[in-house]
Design a protein that fits this description.
This protein is mainly alpha-helical. The chain is 69% helix and 0% strand. It contains seven helices and no strands.
């Protein structure tokens, strides 16, 4: 519960630390998929490092669940319209790294 409330916090440093912890739990094999919607919301940041960690999380869990995949795709597509070329490139790369049935229809318009 503490993780969920901190992910919606406006303080960037607190949020980055929580995202780091979530990624650490994920790499240890702990299921943190319950935080998927909060991580999608936390991706609306200009912090490139935090965005990279969130994209790693989204890519990992999006391949396991098709409903989560569509939330991740919408997050990536929204970031493709960002003014920062680094964020657009990261979103495009992350979108093309998704592997599940039906992803092709989202890849073509992204180009």
């Amino acid at each position: 519960m503490l993780l969920k409330s901190t992910l919606s916090d406006k303080d960037g440093t607190k949020r980055r630390e929580v995202v780091k912890k979530v990624i650490a739990f994920m790499t240890l094999g702990i299921d943190v998929s319950r935080l998927f919607s909060e991580m999608c919301m936390a991706s609306f940041t200009t912090d490139l490092i935090q965005k990279k960690m969130i994209y790693l999380y989204l890519g990992n869990y999006a391949e396991q669940n098709s409903q989560m995949a569509f939330m991740a795709i919408n997050t990536y597509l929204k970031d493709l319209e960002n003014n920062d070329p680094k964020i657009r490139g990261l979103a495009l790369r992350s979108l093309f790294n998704l592997r599940f049935d039906g992803v092709e229809e989202y890849l073509t318009p992204a180009l």
